[in-house]
Amino acid sequence: MAVTALPVAATRPVSTGHFVRLKLRVTANGLRGATWKIILFVLGVFYALLFAAGGFVLFMLPGALDSVRGYGIAAALGGALLVLGWLLLPLVFFGVDESLDPARFALLPLPRRTLVKGLFAAALTGIPAVATLIATGGLVLGAILLDGVAAGLAAFVGVVSGLLLCVALSRAVTSAFASALRSRRSRDLAAVLLAVLATLIAPLQLVVMNGAAATDWARFAGAVTVVGWTPLGAPYTLGADVAEGRWWAVPLKLVIVGVTIAGLLAWWSRSLESAMIGTAAGGGPAAVGRRGRALTPTQRLLAGGLPRNRFGALVGREVRYWWREARRRAGVITFAVVGIVLPISISMSNDDAGLTAASISMIFVGALAAVNLANQFGYEGTAYAANVVAAVPGRAELHSRVLGLTVYVAPIMGVVAVVISSLAGRPEWIPALAGILLAAYGTGLAAVLPVSILGAYAMPDTSNPFAISSGGGMAKSLYSFAAMLVAAVLCAPYVIAGLLLGDAWLWAALPVGLVYGGAFYALGAHLSGKLLDRRMPELLQAVNPRH
Amino acid sequence: MALALHGLVKRFDTTLAVSGVDLNVPVGSFFGLLGPNGAGKTTTLSMAVGLLRPDAGQAQVLGHDVWADPVEAKRLLGVLPDGVRLFDRLTGAELLAYHGLLRGMEPGVVDQRATELLDVLALGADNRTLVVDYSAGMKKKIGLACALLHGPRVLVLDEPFEAVDPVSAALIRDILQRYVSGGGTVVFSSHVMEVVERLCDHVAILAAGTIKRVGTIDEVRGARSLEDVFVEVVGGRTSTGSELAWL
User: What parts of the sequence cross the membrane (chain A) (predicted)?
Assistant: First the structure.
């Protein structure tokens, strides 16, 4: 929408203060009349103050202890972490502060400059900004304690510019994402990325703990210097630079920060336009074929030499669904991360764990792979009607679904066996671990397939991989835990017998595991197939989100 | 009879959605099932094609019981359900190939018919957009293509014209009329009188879970318009002129 030029004398110019007052008024009105909102607000303020106080102490402590190096590390890395937090947290909790939604200003004749300045000022008047300012205030006090008022002054300038940078960054990025996230494809992608981030928290913790225990701080020095010169760390290291006698760095770093803020604000101002109009430019359907013009419809469905019949079609669709459906893809990725990280952390936590501990974690991983199918019919919901109308036999249905999943989890399980054996320094374990994985996968499938038919529940029609329906979905997901337990029990005789067998086990485990898991799977699929033949309409009802 | 329903009953929790529906659809007819929202049209058709197990009653497709002999009955049926998702993470071409192979068709025939259907329905044989990103009208069209692909003898369509633009609706009408003149039978539900009056030779009016009127279109409407009959049967009120006088 074009902003028309107004006769200047006729209107009072809109000042930045208007936006700030509006923001405060909107916040206050949002609290009116609803007790739980006030409680939430107070809790939010409380946590923000807690965070601010904690940050203040952490940032100040090295200065109080008179450690110049410690102060530098805390300023550079802590500051960078803070900036990253401002970047990522609004994306994870998307729309967390939209009390002044740019779209509301679309019809007002405001110059874009005024709008950006005003919204920026409004974003600065919020609890997160205040908390950040208090927390980083620790750097100012620390610098004063270290090197006197001059360093404190430099740190103060740095801290304020750092806050501006944080707010500008988070506004610019959320605004750009808001327009990008309007298309389904990118929403799916974002959902999967979040799932990966969530599962990565555990391994990151592991890495950091081990890193912190093992590394000496001198190795950090180079990294600290580099981070200090990036926009992430530059604003917060001004005090440290003065304390270490590098006065010349202060103006240079201020220029870096200033240019970054200006760039971010320009970017924001650009994406603000599309956020105001409410429709993204790049959101429409694209991807009209380049490749594959010579392919016939069946060739497109049946990739990789699948048989050109009903079973091939079922498998072909399943293989595509495990990748194209966000919830399923998130499941596979989560399995890949957990499947590798969990055995590693188990073997790292007790030093001479040996084959027994590795075997037990393999049972868990194999069963976990099968649990991906625990609500297999819920994923696609009523689309299953197509298979009901075509009278697909239960066993073909189940075999094809298992095969579709196996295409993804079998290579992952192979990697798990190799990685765990290699980390233990015992490559001769590989076939044994692979055998246990297969046996546990087989027994897991035997346990999970009936659950997927009898305990199917509807999932809401969203692309959020963490969304499960409120009505009983939570209780029903307990079935998958029960199924894992059953799988472990079924698998236990095989593993115990194997461990008693001694060295011969190392080469016998793979073929025996294949047969053991295969037999359980065949039995489970046979019985579940018959069950499915009788219950197709009931299953369809169960996965329908509208009932 | 192409489709014969006897005493179909379905109860959801406390509400009786369908209470004893009897319906006989002659072979080669273009049959319209009319009813207001919530009359039980979707429930009835779901039970007729094997998607919803009835509490009582039978459904037969060309003499094959849908619930006792499902494989043969479903082979003869083509279904476009309403309010049901498609396997929408496939492209249109992939979805058609899936349906064709699911029905046990020859791959060569699937390819030829799928390409032709995509072409005729203006969905684009080379379009790599996923069905989930289709517009509502395109979804109806690809659903119809899926129902037609294996050359069923009876087509059961639930609200085939909803959300379809006029150009596509005309195209769908043409295709369905060709299908009936070739000896096929179409049963479809709608609450749009105009479409039913224009297409159907037989109609049934369903309200509150039972069939109120059934017969050829002339038998049902008599000398009046179908809309008048419908409103009277369903029990809607017509304006007398005394209320809302301030209008």
Answer: 38-61, 73-94, 115-144, 150-169, 189-208, 247-268, 330-348, 354-374, 402-423, 429-457, 478-499, 505-527
Res B149 pLDDT > 70: yes
Contact A301 B98 (CB under 8 A): yes
Instruction: Report the gap between the CA of B214 and the closest CA in chain A (Å).
Output: 27
Rounded to whole angstroms, how far apart are CA atoms A366 and A253? 52
Higher pLDDT, A168 or A69: A168
Say what the pLDDT of residue A288 is: 39
pLDDT digits (tens, 9 = 90+) for B196-212: 988 999 999 999 899 99
A516 touches B at CB < 8 Å: no
Query: Domains of chain A: which residue ranges?
Result: 14-94+108-277, 297-542
Q: Which residues on neighbouring strands pair with residue A509, listed in sequence order?
A: none
Partner residue opposite A382 with nearest CB, options B75, B85, B115: B85
Residues A297-316 have pLDDT tens digits of 888 888 778 888 999 999 99
Task: Verify whether the Cβ–Cβ distance B97 to A390 is below 8 Å.
Answer: no
Q: Is A294 on the interface with B (CB under 8 A)?
A: no
Query: What is the topology classification, in CATH, of domain B3-234?
Result: Rossmann fold (3.40.50)
Question: Of A326, A324, A300, A301, nearest to A311 (Cα)?
Answer: A301
Residue of B74, B89, B119, B142 to mutate, testing the A interface (most A Cβ within 10 Å of its Cβ): B89
Intra-chain end-to-end CA distance of chain A, in Å: 44
Residue B84 contacts A, CB cutoff 8 Å: yes
> What sign results for the dihedral spanned by CA atoms A218, A220, A226, A232?
negative
CA distance B168 to chain A (A): 20
CB pairs under 8 A between A and B: 136
Contacts 24+ apart (CB under 8 A), A316-320: A316/B94, A316/B98, A317/A404, A317/B87, A317/B90, A317/B94, A317/B98, A318/A400, A318/A401, A318/A403, A318/A404, A318/A405, A319/A404, A319/A407, A320/B89, A320/B90, A320/B94
Q: Does B89 touch chain A (CB under 8 A)?
A: yes
